[in-house]
Amino acid sequence: MSDSDSDSDCDCDPAPRDAGHRANRLAREKSPYLLQHAFNPVDWYPWGEEAFERSRAENRPIFLSIGYATCHWCHVMEHESFEDPDVAALLNRDFISIKVDREERPDIDGVYMTVCQLMTGQGGWPLTIVMTPDKQPFFAGTYFPRESVVGRRGMLELLPRLAGLWRERRADVEAAGASALQAVREVEAQGIGSADGSLDEETLRRGFSDLLARFDPHQGGFSRAPRFPAPHQLLFLLRWSDRTGDPRGVKMVEKTLVSMRRGGIFDHVGYGFHRYSTDARWLVPHFEKMLYDQALLAMAYTELWQITGDEAHRRVAGEIFEYVARDLTDPGGAFHSAEDADSEGREGAFYVWTREELDEVVGAALGEEAARLARRAFQVEARGNFADEASGLRTGENILHLRETPAEIAAALGEEVTTVEESLEEVRRVLFERRVTRVRPLLDDKILTDWNGLMIAAMAGGGRVFGDEPLVEAAARAADFILERLRDEDARLLHRHRDGESAIPAGAADHACLAWGLIELYAATWDPRWLREARGLLDELLERFWDPDRHGVFNVDAEQRDVPVRQKEVYDGATPSANAATWYALLRLGRLTGDLELLDRAESLRRALAGPVGGAPSAHTMSLVALDLALGPAHEVVVSGEPDSTDTQHMLAALTDRYGPRTAVLFKPADGAAGGRAAADLEAVAPFTGAYDVRDGRATAYVCSHFACRRPTTDVAEMLNQLS
After folding, report:
1. How far is CA 649 from the centre of its chain?
2. Nearest CA among 528, 530, 529, 501 for reference residue 514
3. Which residues in 185-199 are b (16+ Cβ under 10 Å) and which e?
4. β partners of residue 503
5. How many Cβ atoms are within 10 Å of 707's Cβ, its own excluded?
6. Tens digits of per-residue pLDDT, 565-624?
7. Model's pTM, two decimal places?
8. Element (DSSP H or E) covering residue 342
């Protein structure tokens, strides 16, 4: 059973708003999202057996609401419905109400989002589910207002209708719930391991062709509005161009990333990217900022710089890292999850500017000429370019964005490019200083293992490529925080840390993404302990999450018994799927260490993914990134030398400077007190490096492919020739 409603892909404050109500059970939780609802008049429960026991004992259905702290439409539904005494009275009389933070419990969200998509053909947050005490869903939808409006039923009408169905048509309701969960199980049965076969270069070609057909040559991107960043698509396209020599992949990536950086989806004052654009021009965002978007986009800009050498792309990656370091980094070193879209009760209020305010701020600090330049560069209009979402009326406020490059502005004004660039940077600084005085959006300060793994990978990779040691150090601090503090009493990995508490068993994505980050940290530091830690994570992943019958990894292990269906995530959403990230990490670490067990599991996963990935390659582009690595040609390079010697540094720099997504590099220090210990540590995780030593007292490279090595060389040019 479902209700007709439109997609409300969301964007959602944790200071609980005390409206004169006593705190409910959510006040004991750590999740910022749950704490937002701690003073609602609704008698909320967190997900747990207490709620389900009461539901069974009192014969009342479950009203399940899933969202997240920086979600705009979650805020709207709370204000309209969950803070309303009439709606709360209906919920408290006829239902047992449960709140779930989808970022804390992606496993629960995954099951019921699949239900919603099957029932309604769409999904989004807030996610609304009504189900039996046995977790069988018989109604699904997204956002519902307090009162019915055209095209959308309101809570005051909906809740009595659902309560009546429960009382009067109990058998039909239970049958519908059982059927819904069975449909989810059937979807799972058609996924990983459902088809024989393999994935090959033709799969990559079809993925590229589909993205090419969908590409917007004017604005970049691969979808109609709303337009979401999809960095894994971009990472695949860069690899396709590298593999085939077809420049169209790089051109599509560059057009997309340049358009995004110019658009309102980018924060031109404080840096970082917003979650998505509501239009096709990247102009009007939903203003929340997510850690995972920063991480994956930073990877894309970093790799694009490696290929093109265009300093503009390096600058954007640096701007992302600056934002994360300033606004999303915990004092302990790990990274917070997100910043809200709303402040002062309005979406985007922190980010938009009236022309009068901009003129006053910039003019007072830098003069009228600078104000005119700011108006022109950032497309500031007297009537504004930002419209209220509900009414569609312009507010007189502006989303800062660019239509011209500094070079184009300089040419039009007869100025030097550097003069314009310096002036715009002064404008940005002045605006930033004023914006600091505004009420900030909520910071969702929980620390999630999988998202931190992605940012560790991005920062370590960026630090290595750009030669930025502080970035590498920041990545290492975050990794140490996760490895040391997100563990249970049995040393198993945990998913979430907040307010001094680490909790919630880690899922497959946590293990895979953190392993990915640690592999990148090894490449940035040459410290073998990161490989050792990554191997431990993948061992735990394979032991606890691997499906021995149909292969692939479940989202949760078998001990997680409070989820009605164990799913296997394969479709790439805003982040890479758990199975794609696992496949990629297995390949990366297996090739670095020569571990055939990891490579065998990777090959099993490749075969198991043949059905879903082969059927829709462009919907699984992180799997295509892994497939590109699996197909090769791939190389392993062992460099042995004195760590501080010029010849060693020159050889390693030559490998760092080149774009080599299928090249794994290990560094083995030459013998000596410290070098001997480090070499032994490397051999412990990559035993095949034991035979590779310095030749003729000079740094030596061993280039290997398909378990066969070329003759060792001390010449950088020869090493690069062997790689090509």
Report:
1. 33
2. 530
3. eeebeebbbebeeeb
4. 496
5. 9
6. 999 999 999 999 999 999 999 999 999 999 999 999 999 999 999 999 999 999 999 999
7. 0.94
8. strand 342-343
